[in-house]
Amino acid sequence: MKVVGLYEYLPIEAQESFLDVIVDTPKASGHDLLVRIQAISVNPVDTKLRASKVTVEETPRILGWDAVGIVTEIGDAVELFQVGDAVYYAGDVTRPGSYAEFQLVDEHLVGAKPINLSIEEAAAMPLTLITAWEALFDRIRINPDADAGKKLLIINGSGGVGSIATQLAVWAGLEVITTASRDETITWSKQQGATHVINHRKPLLPQLKALDLEGVEYILCLHNTDAYWDAMQEIILPQGHICSVVELQNPVSMSLIKDKSVTVSYEFMFTRSKYNTDDKVRQHDILTKATQLFEKGFLKTTLNHVLTPINAATIKEAHRMLESGKSIGKLVVKGFEENDEQAN
């Protein structure tokens, strides 16, 4: 099968940062599905894992953790899916990824593709959707009934996670404030359902006070936790909850966090698959519920750009676009050339 792989971890401008490679097609066993890939989404985690380091791989490493495709083979323990099913998923960071014609994925991490979304629209969603869902409902533990009307600040609201997190929070009944600094990102954030958009390049608390808000019950930090730490301590209300997807790089003061009895947590979408947790089927459940919300019109895709086909040159371009820091919504790459007709 064709894959886009790497042997060395190089800057994206390097000629061999990605290569078109032929490898054996894997076989499904156990709880695995073998999926013929139709479209993939490229995420910041892809660029981080490709980042320059001295390691050299003996076999091509395949990145990519967002995919839509058709189940072509199932393992002997599979119970949730059948051959021919259209599925979407983000997979497992410890296994070969979706820059490939075929991929093995544990059925417990997979959902049925929403029937009202195109393959491009669906491919944009799994990783960011699961990240946002876990952050809001598993880490912060927002209750859509009991917590309706409370306020959530999303730092970097126009990115992939921020966009769908805004939609999910609105569905849960929260008042959502996002940050953005460009006209196009402000417009995008409002289209996702944000009540207010404030500028992350300016002090945040004065902007909230100008909106007659003294603080918020919840904060979801999706960019540079170090840079916003002090501001978040000021903004969060007593007994509130801060969740971040970006690790701290430096020591920080916890004095206000302690004084306000604030909970701080992290969200990493691959925790359940990486550590094979007993509840990893939760990701199947999340995608299943999300499919229902897409099909009922409560959620919409955050797709904003499509490239084609899936090959080394196109993947390089996708990484360049993400590393520019100006991406809005999600970037999808569609179809290996010989699969284009099948993928429509």
Automatic annotation (TrEMBL):
<dbReference type="GO" id="GO:0016491">
    <property type="term" value="F:oxidoreductase activity"/>
</dbReference>
<dbReference type="InterPro" id="IPR036291">
    <property type="entry name" value="NAD(P)-bd_dom_sf"/>
</dbReference>
<dbReference type="InterPro" id="IPR011032">
    <property type="entry name" value="GroES-like_sf"/>
</dbReference>
<comment type="similarity">
    <text>Belongs to the zinc-containing alcohol dehydrogenase family. Quinone oxidoreductase subfamily.</text>
</comment>
<keyword id="KW-0479">Metal-binding</keyword>
<dbReference type="InterPro" id="IPR013154">
    <property type="entry name" value="ADH-like_N"/>
</dbReference>
<dbReference type="InterPro" id="IPR014182">
    <property type="entry name" value="ADH_Zn_typ-1"/>
</dbReference>
<keyword id="KW-0560">Oxidoreductase</keyword>
<dbReference type="InterPro" id="IPR020843">
    <property type="entry name" value="ER"/>
</dbReference>
<dbReference type="GO" id="GO:0008270">
    <property type="term" value="F:zinc ion binding"/>
</dbReference>
<dbReference type="Pfam" id="PF08240">
    <property type="entry name" value="ADH_N"/>
</dbReference>
<dbReference type="InterPro" id="IPR050700">
    <property type="entry name" value="YIM1/Zinc_Alcohol_DH_Fams"/>
</dbReference>
<feature type="domain" description="Enoyl reductase (ER)">
    <location>
        <begin position="14"/>
        <end position="333"/>
    </location>
</feature>
<keyword id="KW-0862">Zinc</keyword>
<protein>
    <recommendedName>
        <fullName>Zinc-type alcohol dehydrogenase-like protein</fullName>
    </recommendedName>
</protein>
<dbReference type="Pfam" id="PF13602">
    <property type="entry name" value="ADH_zinc_N_2"/>
</dbReference>
